[in-house]
Design goal:
It is a single chain. The strands form seven sheets. Strands 1, 2, 3, 4, 5, 6 and 7 form a seven-stranded mixed sheet that branches. The chain is 30% helix and 21% strand. It contains 25 helices and 28 strands. The relative contact order is 0.06. It comes from Toxostoma redivivum.
């Protein structure tokens, strides 16, 4: 038997049913005996929603009113009545089992399952299997319209059935017409057989993913804006009603190994992915979740793994994974099992523990634990921040994809980090970033996030000719995305003033843009991570020892190179020579974007505000060939490194350690400040600070 089911919500109707998160307000159904071709009683039931504010489309199509719905029963009671009435109708027809049949998949997948999940009550088993009448119709009549273009009305018209909806109440006509379509499909000319119902997974299945797998990009989405404590089960609940592939939820981690509020989700097919995209800006608790398309490569980058140890650990299916963080480096498997205790037994004992280690075998302080059921996992989570040894231990829910990510990150960490290839600017020498207090720059605030360099130049209009070459600087946020700000260097302060007057609050696309006149010093502060507001300049949030603020205004130009690389490559080849007060006036201009005397500022800058000092589309960089570096090294008489055995490497430093603490640690030993100064050329001010460590301030 089939139970033909039709429903409507308080919001969108038709192809957008369920896309606006509105609640169900109407259910209409009728039992159909496929063998005897008899039907049961047609039932229509209104549903009382929590929010009775009906959309205009709903009022127009259904004819329902808030007053009428206010007297109806809530959804849980309506579903109980549904089960009881269907059972009684089946007895009358002499049948015992049935399968639902609906017009498309939206009512079951996008309305009933999400709403009952949010209201915390379970649907009966009959709602996990159903026939999609549109697919069955297209199978029976291949020459009909595509499945996505089918409606009850188009199917009835194809069969020549009556299509006057005004003759019946809303919902009643739809169910009667669906029954008539089914009987036509069962006629002697067609003899259609309902054999393969659509299924809805009862729960999300965890499992490992290998990098060698092939993942169809048409099945992957990216969810953004997730609560940081959300688990893979929470994400599966958000997509309730849709079939997620086994191990198909991958929570993304940031560079510190913590969750960044994003996840990649892989569905069983593109149809399920398309339905997931309709849940864009649906809510998880009080937060709305953004849903976008993603690629299979992105999913494998996050969830894929190659370690046999991880694959064996994750081979135990349907386990709850807990991540432990902050373990003592000397902790053993027995210590962890003793910490968890008998109230939360680990699956397989020691085999259910996975310690995360560096490539050389050193422990990282992280471990993953498997539990066979939710109860044991909850008992383990109650031990969050309890003490093991002399350290408190953090416990979090985790996923198979997070296990892969953490292992991949630590196992790919080199024992001694390799140095990047030095970068050489290919800009003609006369062009430099402005410094000083001359107000020959403008700041654009409120740019559309999609705006590029071409949009800015078009926005500037005739003033484009007054922009210095390579003078457009885009500012990015911490995630590397456009922040809505940009700086432009003009040829003079008068030109900057005219642009600010002419373009202030001028429209770019659908937004107005504020334009302010500023100085090169102010621009440099913002590009290095500081803030510019009405109260003046706020320096970058540096956590490393840095020079006093006056040094910012006197930035000397230096090649774009991290401080670590500067310590191993020849300063004469990559950095400008140290200027003295007497020689500064005669020094030729150099191509510089970061101060040589503040090489550490490059690290601070990238750690907090990774926005480029110049627009990537207007400046090119090429990696220096190894031969050029070698030639530069042989062109000087200063040795690149001190004599063999004169260097030591320190591991395990506290994160807030500064130069003062390191020099104090080696107090009583002679170090070579001259050799150090030869590695990274320093200004007179920085040199005096190095030779007098008490001058350093550690933030």
């Amino acid at each position: 038997s089939l139970v033909v089911l039709f429903g409507a919500t308080a919001g969108a109707y038709g192809a957008k049913l369920g896309s606006d998160e509105r609640e169900l307000i109407l259910l209409v159904w009728q039992v159909v005996d496929l063998h005897s071709k008899k039907v049961g009683t047609l039932h229509k039931s209104l549903v009382k929603a929590d929010n009775l504010d009906l959309s205009d489309q709903c009022r127009e199509v259904s004819g329902l009113t808030p007053e009428g719905l206010g007297k109806a029963e809530p959804l849980d009671r309506v579903l109980q009545q549904f089960s009881q009435l269907v059972s009684s109708d089946l007895k009358v027809l002499g049948r015992s089992s049935y399968t639902l049949c609906s017009d498309g998949q939206l009512l079951i997948r996008q309305v009933l399952h999400p709403e009952t999940s949010k209201k915390n009550f379970l649907l009966s088993d009959c709602f996990y299997s159903f026939y999609d009448l549109r697919k069955e119709f297209h199978t029976c009549y291949p020459s009909s319209a595509a499945v996505k273009d089918q409606t009850i009305k188009t199917m009835a018209e194809y069969l020549g059935l009556g299509t006057d909806e005004a003759e019946e109440d809303f919902g009643v006509w739809q169910v009667k017409t669906m029954v008539a379509i089914i009987f036509s499909m069962l006629s002697e000319g067609c003899n259609h057989v309902f054999t393969e119902p659509e299924t809805v997974k009862y729960k999300y299945e965890t499992g490992p993913c290998s990098k060698s797998e092939t993942v169809d990009s048409e099945t992957v989405i990216r969810a953004r804006g997730l609560p940081w404590q959300s688990s893979d089960q929470d994400i599966a609940r958000f997509f309730k009603g849709l079939n997620i592939a086994k191990g198909g939820v991958a929570l993304c981690l940031n560079s510190q190994g913590r969750r960044n509020g994003e996840a990649l989700v892989r569905f069983v097919n593109s149809e399920q992915r398309d339905l997931a995209l309709e849940r864009h800006k649906h809510h998880m608790g009080s937060r709305y979740i953004e849903v976008y398309k993603a690629t299979g490569e992105e999913f494998l980058k996050i969830a894929g793994g190659t370690s046999n140890e991880v694959a064996q650990f994750l081979s135990k299916e349907n386990q709850v994974i807990i991540r432990m963080r902050g373990l003592p480096f000397t902790a053993t498997q027995e210590d962890v099992l003793g910490f968890l205790g008998p109230e939360c037994p680990v699956t397989g004992g020691k085999e259910g523990l996975l310690f995360v280690k560096y490539p050389d075998g050193r422990p990282t302080g992280d471990a993953f634990v498997l539990f066979s059921c939710e109860e044991y996992a909850q008992n383990a989570l109650k031990k969050h921040k309890e003490i093991l040894g002399k350290r408190y231990i953090e416990l979090f829910r985790s996923t198979a994809a997070e296990v892969q990510q953490v292992l991949n990150r630590y196992m790919s960490t080199p024992l001694i980090p390799t140095l990047p290839t030095p970068i050489i600017p290919v800009i003609p020498p006369p062009y430099t970033i402005a410094t000083g207090s001359i107000r020959d720059c403008v700041r654009l605030r409120g740019l559309p996030y999609t705006a590029g360099i071409d949009d800015i130049l078009e926005f500037m209009g005739d003033a484009t000719g007054d922009i210095k070459p390579h003078g457009v600087h885009m500012v990015l946020n911490q995630q590397g995305r456009p922040s809505g700000d940009a700086f432009i260097q003009m040829k003079s302060a008068d030109k900057a003033f005219m642009v600010a007057q002419k373009c202030h609050k001028k429209m770019m696309k659908d937004r107005y843009v504020e334009v302010f006149q500023c100085s090169g010093e102010e621009m440099n502060f913002v590009l290095m991570g500081g803030t510019l507001n009405r109260s003046g300049l706020s320096p970058p949030p540096c956590k490393l020892p840095c020079l006093s603020p006056p040094a910012y205004a006197a930035f000397q130009t230096a090649a774009v190179i991290p401080a670590e690389a500067a310590a191993l490559y020849q300063p004469q080849a990559l950095l400008p020579t140290t200027r003295t007060p007497q020689a500064s006036a005669a020094a030729p201009p150099t191509v510089t974007y970061y101060p040589a005397q503040a090489a550490q500022l490059y690290m601070n800058y990238t750690a907090y505000y990774p926005s480029p000092p110049v627009s990537p589309t207007t400046v090119g960089y090429i990696a220096a060939p190894p031969g050029a570096v070698a030639a530069a090294a042989t062109a000087t008489h200063t040795p690149i490194l001190p004599q063999p055995g004169a260097l030591v490497r320190m591991q395990g430093l506290p994160y807030n350690t500064g130069m003062k603490e390191i020099l104090s640690f080696f107090q009583g030993y002679q170090y070579a400040p001259d050799d150090y100064n030869g590695l990274i050329q320093l200004s007179d001010q920085a040199r005096s600070v190095l030779q007098a460590p008490k001058e350093w301030v550690c933030l």
